[in-house]
Amino acid sequence: MRWGEATALRVKDLDPVRRRANVQQNAVMVGGSIVVETPKSHEARSVPYPDFLSPALEVACAGKSRDVLVFGNGLDHVRPPDSRRGWWITALAKCRELDDTSPQLTRHDLRHTAASLAVSAGANVKAVQKMLGHASAAMTLDTYADLFDDDLDAVGEALNTARTLSSVGKAWANNDSGNKKTP
């Protein structure tokens, strides 16, 4: 999700059974104030989240009514972190202390990472499009085309495996009463 979409989530927008966040609004900073609007695409969407986030989301929602915000005090939208100092920069510095090769990331890089992981996991491009809220699969492909280049070797291997399996399948199909025939 985009930062504003995540900070605009209300408790009622989470479906813990299906592990989905229903993006209904976007809280963006305009002239120093938070303005709540529809998502960037102007359409609501459902975004899956991994099971390991469930406990943290349960804690964030604990004791809150369905209509309040998930993050922060439930009433005020969490503002984006300061790009020069603050919790985001502190978190990145701690990462670099643990691993000096840790890259300098933006919050939007986390969205790119989610798309990368979905693609690497074999997600359908249309599903990734829907998850990201893109208007078309072409937009997703254009935005994340570099992700697909890394998968070209895997495509070659998959084609080779499919051919091998097909050849084995033909050999089994041609097996007539125990008489083995070559494909």
Strands, count: 5
**Parts with pLDDT < 50 across at least 5 consecutive residues:** none
Order of helices and strands: HEEEEEHHHHHHH
Helix content: 40-55%
Shape, per Cα inertia axes: globular
Q: How far do the termini sit from each other?
A: 50 Å
Which structural class do you get from the secondary structure elements?
Answer: mainly alpha
Number of helices: 8
Spatial strand order of the main sheet: 1-2-5
Briefly summarize what is shown:
Helices cover 44% and strands 11% of the residues.
Written overview of the protein:
- The relative contact order is 0.09.
- The longest helix has 22 residues, at 152-173.
- 44% of the residues lie in helices and 11% in strands.
- It contains 8 helices and 5 strands, in the order αβββββααααααα.
- With 183 residues, the chain is mainly α.
- β3 and β4 form a beta hairpin.
- It has a domain at 1-79.
- The chain has helices spanning 3-7, 54-61, 87-98, 107-120, 125-132, 137-143, 145-149, 152-173; strands at 14-15, 20-23, 26-30, 33-37, 45-48.
- It has a 3-stranded antiparallel sheet with strand order 1-2-5.
- α5 (125-132) packs across α6.
Index terms:
two-stranded antiparallel sheet, 183 residues, 8 helices, mainly alpha
List the helices and strands and how they pair.
Blueprint: H1 3-7, E1 14-15, E2 20-23, E3 26-30, E4 33-37, E5 45-48, H2 54-61, H3 87-98, H4 107-120, H5 125-132, H6 137-143, H7 145-149, H8 152-173
Antiparallel strand pairs: 1-2, 2-5, 3-4
Helix pairs in contact: 5-6
